[in-house]
Amino acid sequence: MKWKVCGMRDAKNIADVATLHPDYMGFIMWEGSKRYCPIPPEVPEYIIKVGVFVDASLENIENAIEDFKLGAVQLHGSETPSLCRALQGKTQVIKAFSIGKTFDFDSLVDYLPYCDFFLFDTKGPLPGGNGSSFDWTLLNDYPFDLPFFLSGGIGLAETEKINEIRKTDLPVYALDVNSTFEVEPGLKNAKLLKVFKEKIML
Q1: Spatial contact of 193 and 199, defined as CB atoms under 8 Å apart
Q2: Which CATH architecture has domain 2-200?
Q3: ∠150-8-193 over CA atoms, to 5°?
Q4: What is the pTM of this model?
Q5: Tens of pLDDT, residues 150-165
Q6: With contact defined as beta carbons under 8 Å apart, do 41 and 11 qualify?
């Protein structure tokens, strides 16, 4: 199982977290976020740089892919399957969906041909970074083979649940961590992330 640290912004903090070798590092390119990072910095080549967008135009996303050498884009708004299709082949496409008390997985069918991964986060007041978990048992109804990122309030308290979900047949590709490991928005506690990595055996 891979892992992604999202909501990065501070150069020294990025360097510290990079020593833990996360597979992905996310940069929020949506102005409404407290973790807004309009110019994602360079990261080591072994880390895939992810630009996180919320209902941005295709042109803006394409420009960011080229300007900042994004290895993936995470679409966290109401982006359509046609937008995902337009980005195919230019970078990895991760389409995020917010899960509440229920979720209709059939609503994802039109996205399947055009996404490399889904990402399931907790429904809340913001598109992401709300710091709470959804009911993971809802994922037992996931009917597709397309791998997904698991997100939403994941921290040290979830390590047992994570190790249990790894024993299932669910195609959980990666864990996405963010606010639970923050000292303040955009600044991660690298020591706690190290403990998390060791507990999950990432």
Answers
A1: no
A2: Alpha-Beta Barrel (3.20)
A3: 60
A4: 0.94
A5: 999 899 999 999 999 9
A6: yes
